[in-house]
Structure formats: C-alpha cells, structure tokens
Design brief:
Keywords: Membrane, Transmembrane, Transmembrane helix. The protein has about 325 residues and is mainly α. The protein is built from 13 helices and 2 strands.
Length: about 325
C-alpha cells in the first residue's frame, strides 16, 4: 500500500507540474499541458483507479493552495477526473456468459472488457463538459461569450496597433465562430491520445492487467447516431442551446471519425502495401485536416450499412491482426 501511495503522489505531482507549466508561457508548456492527464492514466492502468484518484485529489489540492480555486477546479475537470475515470473504464471487465475458468489449471474465466466505443463516448462527454465549462467562464449567453472572445482575440492579434485592420477583424470573427469547435476537437484528440499512450506505456512495462484491445472492432452504440442527428438539428435553433449542440456535434463527429479509422484498418487488411497506404492516409489527414470529413463519412457508413461485417463475411482477412 505504501508503494501504491508513493506512485499515486508522484503521478499527481507530475500531472500538476505539467498542468501548471502553462503559466510560464513557453512553447513546450503547451505540449506538457495537453499531456497532463498521462501520468494519472498510467497510474490508473498500472496500479488501479484508486491510486489515480489519490494522485488527482492531492494534485488538485496543491494547485488550489498555490494558485487558487479556479486552478483546482480546472485541473480536477480537465485532468484528474478524466484520467481516473477513463483508466477505470479501461480495466472494467466481466465474465463472459456461458464460460468458466479452468479450476485444475487455476485459470480465471474469460472476461468481456468495457467496449472501446463506449470509452470514446465518455471521452466525447468529457470534451463537451470541459469546453462548455470554459465558455461559461466568459459569460452565460452567446452574445457575452462571443463578445469576450472577440475582444480578447483582437487584443492579442493587434498588439501594438491602436486600430485593428479590417482583415484582422474578419479573421477574428471567423476565429470566434470556430474557437469552441476547435477546443472540442483538441479535447477529444488529446484525451484519446493520452489514453492510448498510457496503455502502451503500461503494456510495455508489463503492468497492463488486460489484453490489448482490438481497435479494428471499435463501434459506437446505435443511439450515438441518433444523438448526432438531434444535435445537428438543434444547432440551427440559435442562442446558447445551439452553441452547446454544436459542441456536442463536433465531439460526436470526431468520435465517428475515430471509428472511421478503425473501419479503414479493417477494409485494408488484404492490401499488400497496407502500412504504406495507412501511413499515407494518416499523413494527409494530419497535414490538411479536411480529409477527416471522408473518414467521418466512412464511420457513419459503417454504422448504417455494416461495412466491416460485410467485408469480413465475404472476404476473410488473410493477414494476421495488426
């Protein structure tokens, strides 16, 4: 127990330092800020959710004492809570119905692990909550929020100028529209990447107490598509409700895009130069951004038409799982 407590406090200290580094203004602090959940996720996967909870509470308390209550709340919502809960879900398993362990060999029964698609939905929920909470610190209605964002961006981009030019104003107006959506995308991507990295680190160290998930089979629940359609419809009603619906829509679009990558990994199983094609697609998406729309469409098509199931039924994969 003492060893677990030391690991928990060390992970909490590392996360707190990475989170607080943003006040330095250094470029590297941005990367450290987004990787702040990683130590707690590694602790949750390798030493248990309780250790991550202890580390998160300790880190939030220290940050609150040093920098004030807003930093404590921000760390708890953006780092500690997602790190603890996502690590807990990743290790959540239950015996598969109809199976039993080998008592003679002292082997436990086969386990069904918490679906990766549902973990993606939790990541989307955290992205929506953190982005919404950040916007509510600027105001309680869309006019106040957009006005505060616009003034802050104008002040930042027109530093040294008494009167910002029309080009800067148009650029800022576009940023104000897309800033909440971009924040949601960043939250989705960074949380997903942190959880994947934490899994790789614990697997490499031999402390991952579960088999590595088969990401090719990742799928969102059917109700996620219904939620996406409802969110898209509400996005046009106007006001604060529309802004919140746009944030939810963005989170679900990224979730389906991640499913689209899983579909892509399945549909390319029989390709001879599979690694080259996948690497090229990932590079194009990272470099240009907009091709993610095609990957999202692939995820939606699989949800509606079952592309992976049809492919595997008609053309069994000749290559081993990757």
């Amino acid at each position: 127990m003492i060893a677990i407590l030391i690991v928990a406090l060390a992970a909490g200290a590392a996360s707190a330092l990475m989170f607080a580094s943003i006040v330095s203004g250094a470029a590297i602090s941005i990367l450290l800020f987004y990787l702040a959940p990683l130590p707690l996720m590694v602790t949750a996967l390798g030493w248990g959710a309780l250790a991550a909870a202890i580390g998160g509470i300790a880190a939030a308390s220290v940050l609150g004492a040093l920098f004030g209550l807003p930093y404590c709340i921000a760390f708890a919502m953006m780092v500690a809570l997602p790190g603890w809960w996502l690590g807990h879900l990743a290790l959540l398993g239950r015996p598969i119905a109809g199976t039993a362990g080998d008592s003679a060999a002292q082997q436990p029964p086969a386990l069904e692990w918490y679906p990766v698609g549902r973990i993606l939905l939790w990541i989307a929920a955290f992205a929506v909550v953190t982005t919404t909470a950040a916007l509510l610190t600027l105001g309680m209605d869309t006019d106040t929020i957009t006005g505060t964002l616009r003034r802050g961006l104008l002040k930042m981009l027109s530093a040294g100028e008494t009167q910002p030019g029309s080009d800067i104003e148009r650029f800022v107006d576009a940023l104000v529209i897309f800033a909440p959506l971009a924040a949601t995308v960043i939250a989705m991507v960074t949380l997903t990447l942190n959880l994947w990295l934490a899994g790789k680190i614990t697997q490499t160290s031999g402390r991952l107490n579960r088999p590595w998930p088969e990401f090719r089979s990742t799928a969102l629940p059917a109700m996620a598509l219904v939620a996406l359609l409802v969110a898209v419809a509400v996005s046009f009603v106007g006001g604060m409700l529309a802004l919140l619906a746009q944030i939810v829509t963005t989170a679900l679009v990224i979730a389906y895009a991640l499913v689209g990558f899983a579909v892509l990994h399945t549909l390319t199983l029989s390709l001879a130069n599979r690694g080259f094609w996948l690497g090229g697609i990932y590079a194009v998406v990272v470099m240009f951004g907009w091709p993610i729309v095609a990957i999202f469409a692939l995820g939606i098509a699989d949800a509606v038409f079952g592309l992976r199931q049809r492919y595997l039924q008609t053309r069994p994969p000749p290559l081993p799982a990757a």
